[in-house]
C-alpha cells in the first residue's frame, strides 16, 4: 500500500492519478471531501495534527511526503517531522520526500526546511528516496500565455538565461516510479527538466499558434519577478540527467507544454 500525503494539492492529485490502477493507493488529506472523486481510499491526515497521522499511515509500505507549502521554517519542519514520526511508528518500508534543488548543500533561506527535513529522514533510519525538485514549468509557462499570444508580446526579466524547470506531470510520474521500485531506495535525485529560455518560448508560441510573438526583456514585478531574477543570475541553469533516468524517457519538451497550456479549458457537465 502506498500512501500519498497532502494528496489534494496539484502535485499530489497527479501522483494519485499516476498510481491508480498500478498499486493500492491511499490519499491522505486534511479534508477528505476534497478528494471524494479520486477513485482511491481517502484518509484524514493533518500535518498540524500529529495524532491524525498515525492512523492515516497505518498499513503503509511506502509513503510520499509532499513538502508543506508553509513558509515558516520551524512550522514546516515540525509538520514534516510529524509525518516522519508516524512513518517510523508504523514501520513503513520506505519514504520519499519532495525536497528542492540544492537542499543537500544549502541550509539557509528557502531551502532551510528542506535541508533539515532531509537530515531528519536520514537520521530516522527509514529507507528513503529524496526527490529534489526544480521550480515548476507550469508556473512560468501557463501564466499569461494567452495574453502574450493576443498581444504578440512575451515579457520576461531573465536576460535570456536558461531555466531548468520541470512540469508537475513529469515530477509526479517520477514520484510514482520511485514509489513502485525498490531500486530507488537510498538514492537522492536532483531533478531538472530540459533547459529553455523566454526567447525560445516566444518562438514556440509563434510556431504553435501561427501568430507572431516577440520577446521583450524588461522588469517584472511581484513573485514572478523574483523567480525571473534568479534565472537572470544564472541560478536556474544547473542540469542533470536524473529526471530522465527516473522516468525512463525524456521529460516533456517545451513545445508540448505550450500546446497543453493553450488547449481550451475542459467543459464540465
TrEMBL record:
Disordered, as annotated region: 248-269
**The NAD(P)-binding domain covers which part of the protein?**
7-181
One Pfam family per UniProt: NAD_binding_10
Q: Which residues cross the membrane?
A: none
Q: Where is the composition biased (Basic and acidic residues)?
A: 248-259
Source organism, top-level taxon: Bacteria
Database matches in PANTHER family: NMRA-LIKE DOMAIN-CONTAINING PROTEIN, QUINONE OXIDOREDUCTASE 2
What protein name does the entry list? NAD(P)-dependent oxidoreductase
Tell me the lineage of the source organism: Bacteria, Bacillati, Actinomycetota, Actinomycetes, Micromonosporales
Amino acid at each position: 500500500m502506498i500512501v500519498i500525503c497532502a494528496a489534494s494539492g496539484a502535485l499530489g492529485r497527479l501522483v494519485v492519478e499516476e498510481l491508480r490502477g498500478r498499486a493500492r493507493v491511499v490519499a491522505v488529506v486534511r479534508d477528505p471531501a476534497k478528494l471524494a472523486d479520486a477513485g482511491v481510499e481517502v484518509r484524514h491526515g493533518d500535518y498540524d495534527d500529529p495524532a491524525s497521522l498515525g492512523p492515516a499511515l497505518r498499513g503503509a509500505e511506502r509513503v510520499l511526503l509532499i513538502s508543506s507549502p508553509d513558509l515558516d521554517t520551524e512550522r514546516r519542519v515540525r509538520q514534516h517531522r510529524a509525518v516522519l514520526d508516524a512513518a517510523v511508528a508504523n514501520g513503513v518500508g520506505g519514504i520519499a520526500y519532495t525536497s528542492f534543488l540544492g537542499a543537500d548543500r544549502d541550509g539557509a533561506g528557502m531551502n532551510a526546511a528542506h535541508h533539515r527535513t532531509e537530515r531528519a529522514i536520514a537520521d530516522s533510519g527509514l529507507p528513503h528516496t529524496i526527490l529534489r525538485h526544480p521550480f515548476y514549468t507550469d508556473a512560468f509557462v501557463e501564466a499569461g500565455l494567452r495574453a502574450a499570444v493576443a498581444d504578440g508580446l512575451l515579457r520576461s526579466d531573465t536576460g535570456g538565461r536558461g531555466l531548468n524547470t520541470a512540469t508537475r506531470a513529469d515530477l509526479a510520474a517520477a514520484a510514482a516510479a520511485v514509489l513502485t521500485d525498490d531500486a530507488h531506495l537510498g538514492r537522492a535525485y536532483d531533478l531538472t527538466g530540459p533547459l529553455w529560455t523566454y526567447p525560445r518560448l516566444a518562438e514556440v508560441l509563434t510556431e504553435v499558434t501561427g501568430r507572431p510573438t516577440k520577446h521583450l526583456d524588461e522588469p517584472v514585478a511581484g513573485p514572478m519577478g523574483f523567480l525571473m531574477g534568479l534565472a537572470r543570475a544564472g541560478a536556474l541553469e544547473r542540469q542533470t540527467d536524473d529526471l530522465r533516468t527516473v522516468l525512463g524517457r525524456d521529460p516533456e519538451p517545451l513545445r508540448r507544454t505550450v500546446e497543453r497550456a493553450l488547449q481550451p479549458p475542459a467543459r464540465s457537465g
